[in-house]
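Run log // design_07
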């Protein structure tokens, strides 16, 4: 017997849907944000993880974040970005490229750096984002550095390490954004409302305000990055 267990945020729904067409999969059990199902070993699944899926014109892979399509937070953030967003921009934690594709609809963008630590997600982004202004970086967004200071950073940062919520990870993204931005640069961030990011925003930016959101998410625009302490 083989058990398949995972979180919705890690793409378990897509994984189980894909498996259901290949094996005799049991009914799934749900608990909190996770699902589990079982099947009897036998079918050859050696190619399973390498099989991409197409969702709304985007290529994704089972197991990458939001493999079933753009998540609600990213959709909210994309709709809140100004039409005149311009210059050199980075998408931190770019995933499979949904936000990047939305950013590049703005003609004023000169360059977009997609920074993503998960190789499989970045491989999908290379397929989904073919605009010559895009550059791809397999890197930790909290330590990556651009060639020159940026006009804007856009991000939907992760807030889990494994299965445990870790707001410190999002705070590290905020600090990294401040280091990357030019003095007149700005940060566009979407986050779950329950995450305590206001302290990190105040420590790294002189101004920040909610500009959009819904019951579960907030979109924040932060400006005037603070100078690094000596």
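design_07 sequence
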């Amino acid at each position: 017997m083989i058990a398949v267990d995972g979180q919705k945020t890690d793409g378990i729904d897509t994984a189980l849907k894909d498996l259901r067409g290949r094996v005799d999969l049991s009914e799934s059990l749900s608990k909190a944000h996770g699902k589990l199902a079982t099947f009897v070993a036998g079918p050859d699944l050696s190619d399973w993880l390498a099989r991409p899926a197409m969702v709304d014109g985007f290529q994704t892979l089972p197991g990458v974040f939001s493999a079933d399509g753009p998540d609600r937070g990213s959709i909210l953030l994309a709709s809140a970005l100004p039409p005149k967003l311009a210059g050199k921009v980075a998408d931190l934690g770019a995933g499979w490229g949904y936000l990047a594709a939305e950013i590049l609809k703005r003609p004023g963008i000169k360059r977009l750096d997609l920074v993503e630590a998960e190789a499989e997600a970045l491989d999908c982004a290379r397929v989904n984002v073919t605009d010559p202004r895009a550059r791809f970086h397999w890197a930790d967004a909290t330590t990556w550095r651009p060639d020159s200071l940026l006009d804007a950073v856009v991000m939907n940062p992760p807030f889990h390490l494994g299965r445990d919520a870790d707001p410190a990870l999002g705070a590290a993204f905020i600090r990294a954004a401040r280091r990357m931005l030019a003095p007149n640069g700005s940060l566009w961030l979407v986050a779950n409302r329950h995450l305590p990011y206001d302290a990190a925003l105040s420590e790294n930016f002189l101004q920040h305000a909610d500009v959009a959101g819904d019951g579960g998410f907030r979109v924040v625009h932060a400006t005037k990055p603070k100078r690094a302490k000596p």
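The mean pLDDT is 92.
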